[in-house]
Automatic annotation (TrEMBL):
Spans annotated as Disordered: 261-287
Stored PROSITE patterns: IG_LIKE
Originating organism: Sipha flava (yellow sugarcane aphid)
Signal sequence segment: 1-28
Protein name: Basigin
Superkingdom of this protein's organism: Eukaryota
InterPro entries membership: Cell_Adh-Cytoskel_Orgn, Ig-like_dom, Ig-like_dom_sf, Ig-like_fold, Ig_I-set, Ig_sub, Ig_sub2
One GO cellular component term: plasma membrane
Amino acid sequence: MCWNPLSVVVCSVVFCALLDFAPSGVLADVTVKANYDYGENYRVGQYKTKLLLHCSIEGNQDSIKYIWKWFKGDQEISSDDDTPHHVEVKENELVVNRFVESDAGPYTCKLLNSNNNQVLGSKSFNVILKPYVKLPKTATYIEGEKMELECIVFGKPTPEVSWRFENNTLFPSEHIKFLANKRNISNAILVLDPITMKDRGNFYCTGKNSVFLDPVVSDPSYVRIKDKMAALWPFLGICAEVIILCLIIFIYEKKRNKAEFEESDTDQGPETNNANDHSGGDVRHRK
């Protein structure tokens, strides 16, 4: 067989191509697995806590040279992004250090041939944010005023919010209303108009979404109701103290003046009589 230079070049190219794609045949027995929480691809993150996405290989890994890449949607993620401390990529792991709503969404880990970047396997994550609900520990209102109590809500998908007073679920009525907050989450604000003494107690808000069906209940918020005259009592108390003080001063001054007057009369009486007696004696003596 006669080999010319062109034949040698063509054979060399074909041989190199076969070498590059040879590992893909070996990887037919390799499976990529992911740390799902439930379902086929769900991973649940909690508000402002660390979230770990992990992929691994099962199967024959001999003679495999591979690399891992992570994507959110179609955008590749790396630790060289603008916020390296928020998201970290560690080969087959992706760490979100403080998980918030904007971090929820579709993620993908891809296993690639390091020689030619051929995708050897991948796993997709549907990352959701578990509902997070929070109320102020205490709140104080005056009887007869309108109460607006807001439940701080986060979650992806957007949670549905419901309310409870002590052990009773609240429903809309003439006295009870629900409003959306600035982020347009329905029922996030509870309105009682007017508020009465019967409304004093513990309120709870609950959040659940279409994926994470287990309801998440907030810590209680204790609502105090003050009497409508409560603001007037301190003023009346001060006025009463001033009046009592003035009366005490007036009575004291009156008694003191009376005592001084009586004392002056007592001091002047005997001296005046003695003086009169002596003057009378002198007059008789002269006669």
